[in-house]
Design a protein that fits this description.
Largest sheet: none
Number of helices: 11
Oligomer: single chain
Distance between the termini: 45 Å
Order of helices and strands: HHHHHHHHHHH
Radius of gyration: 18 Å
Structural class: mainly alpha
């Protein structure tokens, strides 16, 4: 079996073609780098969900950390099935963490304490990155008004999530050329709507 270290660190192109579910399966099998790759790939999606719903970038980052810590614990519970839709699963965990934080008046730390994770200190660049993720969510909402759902999904998966055409095609059950065409048409529509000629 190919190590995720090789896939992620040495074959970056191949890493973009590895599905989220496969990363979680490899993480469960003991390849720690795979959960790290999953985190790097999906942290912006979680932040984009959380940031508009909380008062500060720090709170969004804190909730994101607890979300991924809870996800990591779940991945290593052998009796628990891995999610079919990992991004939706993460957002559900983030939503639950957010609701718990509202009820308690503070962010839970149980999962991070269970994993013995140290608190993360955020610098100015980190806080800007959190706010940028929220801006991506705003942009996606605007794009949803301009593009058909199939083009919006292909465009956002490819450009915002840095996913490769093979991975998107596999997820959608279509060919890579169909995904490429959807991305191309989406970009053409956006250019036309803004009066930009190529």
């Amino acid at each position: 079996m190919l190590s995720c270290v090789n896939v992620v660190m040495h074959l970056e192109k191949a890493a973009s073609e590895v599905s989220d579910r496969e990363l979680l399966e490899r993480a469960r099998a003991g390849d720690e780098e795979c959960f790290g790759a999953f985190y790097r790939r999906r942290r912006r999606a979680v932040l984009a969900f959380l940031r508009p719903r909380v008062a500060s970038a720090e709170l969004a980052a804190d909730l994101m950390c607890e979300t991924f810590a809870s996800a990591l614990i779940a991945v290593h519970e052998p009796d628990r099935a891995l999610p079919r839709e990992p991004v939706a699963w993460l957002v559900a965990i983030a939503r639950n963490e957010l609701l718990d934080a509202w009820r308690r008046g503070r962010v839970a730390e149980g999962a991070r304490r269970r994993l013995a994770l140290e608190p993360v200190v955020l610098g100015d660049e980190d806080l800007i990155a959190v706010d940028d993720a929220a801006a991506d969510a705003d942009l996606l909402a605007q794009l949803a008004d301009e593009l058909p759902p199939d083009q919006l999904y292909a465009l956002s998966a490819h450009l915002f999530e840095d996913r490769g055409y093979p991975e998107i095609a596999e997820e959608l059950g279509c060919s890579q050329s169909v995904v490429r065409k959807r991305v191309s048409r989406g970009l053409s529509t956006l250019r036309a709507n803004r009066g930009v000629t190529s």
